[in-house]
UniProtKB/TrEMBL annotation:
Annotated keywords: Signal
InterPro entries: NTF2-like_dom_sf, SnoaL-like
Lineage per the UniProt record: Bacteria, Pseudomonadati, Bacteroidota, Flavobacteriia, Flavobacteriales
Protein known as: Nuclear transport factor 2 family protein
Domain SnoaL-like per the UniProt entry, residue ranges: 31-145
Signal peptide positions (record): 1-21
Lineage top rank: taxon: Bacteria
Length: 171
């Protein structure tokens, strides 16, 4: 009897773990599909599809220190690029996706092949009521090799000093 109970317990535990792992894999694929479609929409200058993958309260943080946009601000900034027929072209060469315990929040980091060479993207997606994942926060950054950091700091030092002073004065 003890052997039967132990076997049933192990079977249930294994089955539950397997189902959870399978569900995580399915949701990971859905999140990855959204991100790939989002990047593809930019490359194809599909404005409506691109912004359709984001929530209305999304934030986009770009590579420039001044680029911290609300959804509406980012749409306004991006519109002229999309109107020209090509916005930007990013494709993931590596991506890691993680989920909150409740399964309704996902976060990720990705290494991107772009016209700026390698960049890093990271962000947060939220599972919507209809079952679709949407981007609520995205950060784009340049991937700079450590041996080139000093050179880059030298290039941006003057502008960063001016911006830092302005921001400190606003506090």
């Amino acid at each position: 009897m003890k052997t039967t109970i132990l076997a049933i317990t192990m079977f249930v535990a294994f089955g539950t773990s397997f189902c959870q792992a399978q569900n995580t894999f399915v949701e990971e694929e859905k999140v990855s599909t959204v991100l790939d479609a989002w990047h593809k929409a930019a490359a194809e200058a599909n404005f409506e599809e691109y912004f359709g993958h984001m929530t209305e309260d999304a934030i986009f943080i770009g590579t420039d220190a001044t680029e911290n946009w609300t959804f509406a601000e980012f749409k306004k900034f991006s519109k002229p690029y999309f109107d020209k027929g090509k916005a930007w072209s990013f494709s993931a060469v590596e991506r890691h996706i993680f989920f909150a315990d409740n399964g309704k929040i996902a976060w990720f980091d990705e290494l991107l092949d772009t016209q700026m060479k390698l960049c890093r993207g990271s962000g947060v997606l939220e599972l919507q009521k209809g079952g679709d994942w949407k981007i609520v926060h995205y950060v784009l950054s340049l991937a700079i090799p450590n041996e080139n950091v000093e050179q880059i700091v030298g290039l941006k030092s003057t502008k960063d000093s001016i911006l830092t002073k302005m921001l400190k004065e606003k506090q």
